[in-house]
Amino acid sequence: MKKYEIVKKNIDFNDIIKNGNFRKSPYYYIYYKDTYKDKEDNIPKFGLAVSKSIGKAVVRNKIKRQLRVIIDNNKKLFQNNRNYIIMVRKDILNISFHDMEKQLINLMQKGTKNEKN
């Protein structure tokens, strides 16, 4: 992910979580919120949240690196003009990278089938 594709501000995180919609699976919570259509940058933006209950810093950073690669490889699944917060659940420690990717793809595809734009 590029720097301009990242949601960094705490205010933005809280706004997306409180006022947006969400999807969930045993491994992820994905919160998303549409942005204004008149903005010039209509790219999706992402925020990653890995709780301290997942593990120590090395484990959390590894999971975040893996998620960034998954997002970069599957950008076509994410809608433009939308911001996403991806929260990781503790069960993620029990699956491989390939399974992490499949679960995230399935969760995103399940959501796009239900939404008609």
Entry keywords:
single chain, 3 helices, 38% helix, 117 residues, Ribosomal Protein S5, domain 2
Structure description:
The chain is 38% helix and 21% strand. It is globular and about 40 Å long. The protein has a single domain (3-110), classed as 2-Layer Sandwich (Ribosomal Protein S5, domain 2). It contains 3 helices and 4 strands, in the order H-E-E-E-H-E-H. With 117 residues, the protein is α+β, with helices and mostly antiparallel strands. Strands 1-2-4-3 form a 4-stranded mixed sheet, sandwiched between helices.
Structural class: alpha+beta
Low-confidence stretches: none
Distance between the termini: 25 Å
Under CATH at level 1, the class stands as: Alpha Beta
Write down how many β-strands occur, each being a DSSP E stretch of 2 or more residues. 4
In which range does the helix fraction lie?
25-40%
CATH topology: Ribosomal Protein S5, domain 2
Could you tell me the mean pLDDT?
Answer: 86
Number of domains: 1
Question: What is this structure's SSE topology?
Answer:
Blueprint: H1 10-19, E1 21-24, E2 28-34, E3 45-50, H2 57-73, E4 82-88, H3 97-114
Parallel strand pairs: 3-4
Antiparallel strand pairs: 1-2, 2-4
